[in-house]
Amino acid sequence: MIINTATIWMMQVGALLAPLLDETQAGHEAGGERVGAGSGHGVATSSTVIAPSPIEPVLFFIVGLSLALVMVGMVLCLYRMLRGPHLADRVLAGDVLSMHVVGLVILLTIRLRTTAFFDAALVVAIIGFASTLAFAQYIGARRSETP
Protein backbone atom coordinates (compact mmCIF):
# COMPACT_ATOMS: atom_id res chain seq x y z
CA MET A 1 0.00 0.00 0.00
CA ILE A 2 2.81 2.43 0.85
CA ILE A 3 4.62 1.74 -2.42
CA ASN A 4 1.50 2.23 -4.48
CA THR A 5 0.71 5.52 -2.73
CA ALA A 6 4.28 6.79 -3.11
CA THR A 7 4.41 5.75 -6.75
CA ILE A 8 1.10 7.41 -7.58
CA TRP A 9 2.15 10.56 -5.73
CA MET A 10 5.45 10.75 -7.62
CA MET A 11 3.71 10.23 -10.96
CA GLN A 12 1.22 13.00 -10.16
CA VAL A 13 3.99 15.39 -9.09
CA GLY A 14 5.93 14.54 -12.26
CA ALA A 15 2.89 15.14 -14.45
CA LEU A 16 2.18 18.48 -12.78
CA LEU A 17 5.77 19.69 -12.99
CA ALA A 18 6.67 18.37 -16.45
CA PRO A 19 5.51 21.48 -18.37
CA LEU A 20 7.33 23.81 -15.98
CA LEU A 21 10.50 21.73 -16.05
CA ASP A 22 10.44 21.38 -19.84
CA GLU A 23 10.13 25.13 -20.36
CA THR A 24 12.91 26.02 -17.94
CA GLN A 25 15.23 23.25 -19.15
CA ALA A 26 14.80 24.31 -22.77
CA GLY A 27 15.49 27.89 -21.78
CA HIS A 28 18.65 26.98 -19.86
CA GLU A 29 19.98 24.63 -22.53
CA ALA A 30 19.62 27.27 -25.21
CA GLY A 31 21.15 30.01 -23.06
CA GLY A 32 17.84 31.64 -22.22
CA GLU A 33 16.43 31.20 -25.70
CA ARG A 34 14.23 28.54 -27.17
CA VAL A 35 15.23 27.51 -30.65
CA GLY A 36 12.49 26.67 -33.14
CA ALA A 37 12.07 23.13 -34.49
CA GLY A 38 13.92 23.01 -37.87
CA SER A 39 13.10 24.37 -41.21
CA GLY A 40 10.74 22.76 -43.68
CA HIS A 41 8.14 21.75 -41.09
CA GLY A 42 6.09 24.91 -41.16
CA VAL A 43 7.64 26.13 -37.89
CA ALA A 44 9.58 29.37 -37.74
CA THR A 45 13.26 28.92 -37.04
CA SER A 46 13.71 32.20 -35.18
CA SER A 47 14.52 32.16 -31.49
CA THR A 48 12.14 33.43 -28.89
CA VAL A 49 13.16 34.44 -25.40
CA ILE A 50 11.42 32.57 -22.60
CA ALA A 51 10.48 34.96 -19.84
CA PRO A 52 10.72 33.60 -16.31
CA SER A 53 7.41 32.70 -14.79
CA PRO A 54 6.06 35.20 -12.26
CA ILE A 55 5.30 32.30 -9.89
CA GLU A 56 8.92 31.06 -9.93
CA PRO A 57 10.12 33.04 -6.85
CA VAL A 58 7.11 31.82 -4.89
CA LEU A 59 7.80 28.24 -5.98
CA PHE A 60 11.44 28.47 -4.88
CA PHE A 61 10.43 29.98 -1.53
CA ILE A 62 7.93 27.18 -0.89
CA VAL A 63 10.43 24.52 -1.97
CA GLY A 64 13.11 26.04 0.29
CA LEU A 65 10.72 26.13 3.23
CA SER A 66 9.67 22.55 2.52
CA LEU A 67 13.30 21.43 2.36
CA ALA A 68 13.91 22.94 5.80
CA LEU A 69 10.82 21.27 7.26
CA VAL A 70 11.69 17.88 5.76
CA MET A 71 15.19 18.14 7.22
CA VAL A 72 13.73 18.93 10.66
CA GLY A 73 11.52 15.86 10.32
CA MET A 74 14.56 13.78 9.37
CA VAL A 75 16.41 14.93 12.48
CA LEU A 76 13.41 14.02 14.65
CA CYS A 77 13.24 10.57 12.99
CA LEU A 78 16.95 10.03 13.63
CA TYR A 79 16.41 10.96 17.28
CA ARG A 80 13.58 8.43 17.56
CA MET A 81 15.73 5.76 15.89
CA LEU A 82 18.52 6.31 18.40
CA ARG A 83 16.39 6.78 21.52
CA GLY A 84 13.34 4.64 20.71
CA PRO A 85 12.27 2.65 23.73
CA HIS A 86 11.21 -0.32 21.61
CA LEU A 87 12.40 -1.94 18.41
CA ALA A 88 9.05 -1.23 16.76
CA ASP A 89 9.51 2.51 17.39
CA ARG A 90 12.87 2.37 15.68
CA VAL A 91 11.45 0.47 12.72
CA LEU A 92 8.64 2.99 12.26
CA ALA A 93 11.11 5.86 12.54
CA GLY A 94 13.20 4.21 9.81
CA ASP A 95 10.15 3.88 7.59
CA VAL A 96 9.19 7.52 8.10
CA LEU A 97 12.82 8.51 7.50
CA SER A 98 12.79 6.71 4.15
CA MET A 99 9.62 8.61 3.17
CA HIS A 100 11.34 11.84 4.21
CA VAL A 101 14.25 10.95 1.93
CA VAL A 102 11.77 10.40 -0.92
CA GLY A 103 10.26 13.82 -0.23
CA LEU A 104 13.72 15.38 -0.07
CA VAL A 105 14.68 13.88 -3.42
CA ILE A 106 11.46 15.13 -5.02
CA LEU A 107 11.94 18.62 -3.57
CA LEU A 108 15.52 18.70 -4.83
CA THR A 109 14.24 17.59 -8.23
CA ILE A 110 11.90 20.56 -8.28
CA ARG A 111 14.64 22.90 -7.07
CA LEU A 112 17.17 21.70 -9.66
CA ARG A 113 14.54 21.67 -12.44
CA THR A 114 15.24 18.18 -13.65
CA THR A 115 13.32 14.94 -13.74
CA ALA A 116 16.42 12.76 -13.48
CA PHE A 117 15.97 12.03 -9.77
CA PHE A 118 12.41 10.65 -9.86
CA ASP A 119 13.87 7.16 -10.44
CA ALA A 120 16.04 7.54 -7.35
CA ALA A 121 13.00 8.53 -5.30
CA LEU A 122 11.17 5.43 -6.49
CA VAL A 123 14.13 3.18 -5.59
CA VAL A 124 14.35 4.72 -2.10
CA ALA A 125 10.60 4.17 -1.61
CA ILE A 126 10.89 0.51 -2.64
CA ILE A 127 13.92 -0.10 -0.41
CA GLY A 128 12.22 1.61 2.53
CA PHE A 129 9.10 -0.50 2.08
CA ALA A 130 11.10 -3.73 1.77
CA SER A 131 13.17 -2.94 4.86
CA THR A 132 10.02 -2.22 6.86
CA LEU A 133 8.60 -5.60 5.82
CA ALA A 134 11.85 -7.33 6.75
CA PHE A 135 11.92 -5.72 10.20
CA ALA A 136 8.25 -6.57 10.73
CA GLN A 137 9.02 -10.23 9.94
CA TYR A 138 11.94 -10.09 12.38
CA ILE A 139 9.82 -8.57 15.15
CA GLY A 140 7.06 -11.13 14.54
CA ALA A 141 9.49 -14.05 14.67
CA ARG A 142 11.12 -12.66 17.80
CA ARG A 143 7.78 -12.30 19.60
CA SER A 144 6.71 -15.85 18.71
CA GLU A 145 9.97 -17.25 20.17
CA THR A 146 9.71 -15.31 23.43
CA PRO A 147 7.57 -17.15 26.02
List the defining traits of the structure above.
single chain; mainly alpha; 147 residues; two-stranded antiparallel sheet; 2 strands; elongated
What topology does this entry show?
Layout (H helix, E strand, L loop, with lengths): L1 H28 L3 E2 L13 E2 L6 H28 L3 H26 L5 H28 L2
Helix pairs in contact: 1-4, 2-3, 3-4
Q: What does it look like?
A:
There is one protein chain. The protein has about 150 residues and is mainly alpha-helical. The protein has one domain. The chain contains four helices and two strands; from the N terminus they run αββααα. The chain has a two-stranded antiparallel sheet. Helix 1 packs antiparallel against helix 4 and helix 2 (about 55-85) runs antiparallel to helix 3 (about 85-110). The longest helix is centred in the first third of the chain and has 28 residues, at about 1-30. The radius of gyration is 21 Å and the shape is elongated. The two termini are about 30 Å apart.
Entry summary:
The protein has 4 helices and 2 strands; from the N terminus they run H-E-E-H-H-H.
Number of strands: 2
What is the N-to-C order of secondary-structure elements (H for helix, E for strand)?
Answer: HEEHHH
Helix segment tally: 4
Mean pLDDT score, rounded? 77
Strand order of the largest sheet: 1-2
Distance between the termini: 32 Å
- What is the structural class? mainly alpha
